[in-house]
Design goal:
Blueprint lengths: L4 E3 L2 E3 L3 E3 L8 H9 L4 E8 H21 L17 H14 L4 E6 L3 H14 L3 E5 L11 H16 L6 E5 L6 H11 L3 E4 L7 E3 L4 E3 L11 H10 L6 E5 L5 H10 L3 E4 L1 H6 L3 H16 L24 H9 L3
Parallel strand pairs: 3-4, 3-12, 4-5, 5-6, 6-7, 7-8, 8-11, 11-12
Antiparallel strand pairs: 1-2, 9-10
Helix pairs in contact: 3-4, 4-5, 5-6, 7-8, 8-10
């Protein structure tokens, strides 16, 4: 069985990709991911807010020290040339590129245009094969129009693509009013791939303490339905690579996503639950299924269940929704 696939022009030996998570903070883990069959690794995310906080803390120390000992400032680098917080991240990319052959994809979560541009360029210079842009933005301002939100996304993509030459993937949320059209516009802005979907960590309430709780829940297999739908709808209709993420617990979800049209399938929750060697298990299960079904390559079955290719396209539309409700009688 030939497991290779292409994602944003990158040649991968497997369609199973490790999504952005803290497991990639350690170089030895990245090596283990490659050894167990990962097609690529998306690095843990670099958050602009964290870096800004570290810079502010550094400036505070510098200011208080300089006020007491004027000559002390000579011992500090100019902050314009000292990007606190990025050095460890970039060094991890460099070391990973020295140790493994699989593509290393930087992950950037920014808040300002300047941050997107600066940090994406640094990742490229550190050796990243591509960048995944995670635009985590909740438009809580009720005066902000949908058009403004959309242009914000498009401007970020355009700014990054004007800065780097490596491929750029955009990790999207599912809440756009016209996701298909927005996908086309992102392609025009320069995006090379879409990652569907960003999984927001939403707050909960503690009704006894009357406080907002934030906790982490791993994704479950039932959560694949929404990204599965949109990948099946977009496949063959936009000239972008498609990556599926959320809900991957076994090869079953991987197979479903590829049938819908995904070029790659990303997972992290399954590795937290089962360990990095579980990548080998999922690759083996995928190969066994391909053999059983008579598929020699991943491309042979990719997109066969997309809306474009199935015999009954209305299965993805409102008519099927009515059938489901009628079946509950």
């Amino acid at each position: 069985m030939k497991m290779h696939t292409t994602y944003m022009g990158l040649k991968l030996d497997s369609p199973i990709v490790v999504s952005a998570c803290t497991l990639s903070e350690k170089i030895d883990n990245i090596v283990k991911m490659e050894d167990n069959g990962a097609g690529a690794v998306v690095m843990f995310s670099l958050f602009e807010e964290q870096i800004r906080k570290e810079e502010a803390r550094f400036k505070s120390v510098l200011s208080s020290t300089s006020n007491s000992f004027a000559e002390a400032s000579d011992y500090f680098q100019d902050l314009d040339d000292f990007n606190v917080g990025t050095s460890e991240y970039l060094e991890t990319i460099r070391k990973a590129k020295e140790r493994v052959k699989i593509p290393i994809i930087g992950s950037l979560n920014g808040i300002t245009n300047e941050g997107w541009i600066d940090y994406s360029k640094m990742m490229e210079q550190a050796g990243a094969d591509a960048i995944e842009v995670n635009i985590f933005f909740i438009p809580g301002d009720v005066s902000m129009s949908s058009s403004h939100v959309e242009h914000r996304y498009l401007n970020i993509i355009d700014a990054i693509k004007q800065t780097v030459k490596i491929p750029v993937a955009v990790k999207l949320n599912p809440y756009f009013s016209a996701l298909g059209n927005m996908s086309h516009r992102m392609k025009t802005a320069g995006a090379d791939a879409l990652v569907l979907f960003n999984r927001f960590y939403q707050p909960d309430f503690d009704i006894n303490e009357l406080i907002i709780k934030t906790d982490l829940h791993y994704s479950e297999s039932g959560e694949i339905r929404l990204p599965l739908l949109w990948i099946a709808l977009l496949y063959g209709r936009i000239d972008l690579s498609l990556a599926a993420t959320t809900g991957v617990q076994s090869a079953v979800e991987i197979i479903k996503y590829i049938l819908a049209g995904a070029d790659v399938v990303m997972t992290a929750s399954s590795l937290y639950k089962n360990g990095i060697p579980y990548l080998r298990t999922m690759n083996k299960e995928l190969q066994d299924w391909m053999y059983m079904m008579g598929f020699d390559t991943v491309d042979a079955f990719k997109g066969t269940m997309s809306q474009k290719n199935i015999s009954n396209p209305t299965a993805y539309e409102r008519a099927n929704y009515i059938k489901i409700l009628e079946g509950m009688k």
